[in-house]
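If your schedule permits, I should be very grateful for your opinion on a structural question. I would ask you to consider whether the tokens describe a fold that such a sequence might reasonably adopt. Thank you for your consideration; the sequence and its tokens are set out here.
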Amino acid sequence: MRTHDLQELVDGLAARLQRSVTVTDPEIRILATSAHFGDEDEARVRAVLARVAVPEVYRHIHSFGVRSWSEPGTVAAAPALGFKQRFVIPIRQGRTLLALLMIIDRAESGLTDVELNTAMQTTRTMVGILDRDQADLQRRRAHRSKLLSDLLSDNDAAREQARSQAAQIMGGPVEHAVVMTMKIGSPSQYGAELALEVDAGLANVELREGSRLAHMCQDGIATICSVAEQPPSKAGIREQARRILGSVSSLLNESVCCTMGLCDDPTRLSMMRTAQQKSRLAAEAATVLPQFRPLAAFSDLGVFSVLLRLRREDLEDVVPSSLRRLLEDDPHGVLGETLTLYLASGGSIPATAHRLRLHRTSLYYRLNQIEMQLELSLHDGEARQILHLGLKAMELLDAYSRLQEK
């Protein structure tokens, strides 16, 4: 960004208007900002300090549909956010929104004709600067997205070429990669702005942390790749995933559910397709199963890493008919809970009794009832494995049913 030229234009306009002026990109990240003129508000001060979109202010501004504006307009004040009314001029090159010029409207009376003409002349001068920089940014994002697509392609030649170009496109060594999958909302919430909000959230992470990210987003599923020269730790991978999830979620409508799955082992570029599959399974777990929400790593999934690969009709076959009958004839869930905790405790009587807060004699009585109804011995290791798998399959089936009911 040629910030020097842009800054001079912003400072000059602010001096002529005697008002605070800011130019942001379409995602409300500051590109240039003038000195205060005694009209600053809390939102402006926070934005100048953060240099990235303040989530609640971002949502407020975009609630007025500024991305589609072709003419100047006002964004109303939001006292609860410390946000005074802004007079906003969209800066466009053809149909492309390059930036937003925002002027604090302290009198809430707009601009005079002379002031508006001065501001419009300034924005026309800014177009040349912003257009070159926006084109560079879009090319860089497109190249990174194409790189990620090729690295995950089933075409051997495309993958090989992508690996040879990765360091140049990503701006440095890419010895290790972390693959994440983010699932966002439901089909009714997918729209053109969703991809822009994902772009903004990820760009904020890059700006704050210096991360190198590539991503692609389609139908509410974003595949994200973070690259590094040195292998990150598992804890570091999870923490970065939490920051990415939080950054994107903060810009979305509060009604939109956002979940993340990741392969928490750094991988070589040649193994990214396997890492992507693991991250997708983890994202499915985070979306479907409450205990994993909102972020799950593949290593967290246990037997669900197998069950999530099955179709629902195949999951039905995993559940022994005797187990299904036991649970259906157990309206209060006493035997089901006992069996679940017994298996989760590795068949340990003391551990199960402790978790149930139950005397061992009562526990033995319940286990005897379970064995009689199942016609299986709980001392049989293979029988315990079958029952454990069946209970997990039923848990997953129940979760799918709950999602369908929403």
The beta strands are 21-24, 30-33, 73-75, 86-93, 96-104, 176-184, 213-218, 221-228, 258-262, 295-297. The longest strand covers residues 96-104. The longest helix spans residues 113-151.
